[in-house]
Give the backbone structure.
Amino acid sequence: MISREPAVNFDRVRSDSDTRPAQTDTLITLPDSPVRATSIRATAQVFEDPKSVALLSRLRQIAPSEANVLLTGETGTGKELIARHVHALSRRWHGPFIAVNCGAFAESLVESELFGHEKGAFTGAFSARPGWFEAAAGGTLFLDEIGDLPLKLQVKLLRVLQEREVVRLGSRKPVPIDVRIIAATHVRLEEAVAAGKFREDLFYRLGVVVLGLPALRDRPGDILPLAQHFLAVYRQRLGQGNVPLHPDAERKLLRHPWPGNIRELENAIHHALLVSESHQIRAEDLQLSSLSLPDAATGPADSAPQPAEDTLRQVLLTLFERPPADLFDRIEDTVLRTAYEHCRRNQVHTARLLGISRNAIRSRLIRIGVIDARR
Ligand SMILES: Nc1ncnc2c1ncn2[C@@H]1O[C@H](COP(=O)(O)OP(=O)(O)OP(=O)(O)O)[C@@H](O)[C@H]1O
């Protein structure tokens, strides 16, 4: 089933209108704002596998309520997309949707970004700024990678959720808040709670409704429809004509374990369209890693992974089979992408694994389009 329901709201980028936005494939970027907000994109969504159909109907049930939602699932399973969907189907659809990656900022910065600050609250606070909680008023605040929130801030977040008010850094005046929280994590929070790394009371407050997103390998009925969907999206973007999937390519897609889930499938299809030299996508056009990610349930959440020697070997073999002109750039980019997925999209772990600074990792990931500069 291709859902044509609006996946986003456009209120922050359009004038006062009380009608729901029409579905569109336009990429829209939020205007500069004192708070971080991601660009928003309305896309068709694929929910074909029975597991996804069940997820969609659960989501429609819970969306209209005001309950906080906790989304769990491996990286790339569509947590942010589902969060946008819940928002679009909620009574808050006309308010802002603000996505915040709690793991992307230093502890000192997250606090002022989330809760805001007054002028002079700390060195460099030249003017007062509202935080994400205030900016999301009337809408939804999506707290991604909530498991990365430092304990000190977990205490503060819990208080904000209980009191329904926020106090900016450097101020004593409480400001009432009106947001629905959707949090997401790719680690098992129950285990972080047991290990004393995540507060149990906050876990229950955030997870009034818990939605587990199945890994792509556990919903095989979605693989080919998603591949067709991404083929259509990227064909249109690249201005290409119809490029069908060869049956061997379909078999290869169905056999792959998809450790990077839907994002990995999207990248594989995009890449295949770029390198395909025939009128169809052949199996050899699909560059799939042999990477198998450590299970989030068994792998410790905060330990750096070991170098993925098998993966690197596979990457090099693939490149040397068909060496492109810009070989060294391609090797660097591919190693970085693979290491980043291996580290479950954790920039600090990727930096540690590759022995480069986190800033260097971040700017390269932005340059090659893996992450959004605004996040
Ligand atoms: N059901 C779907 N139909 C079509 N595209 C999808 C679907 N689910 C996810 N995608 C696409 O897959 C990509 C990854 O999805 P998303 O960013 O929501 O995953 P995520 O679980 O939030 O990832 P992470 O844990 O790394 O933050 C996005 O480009 C998204 O648009």
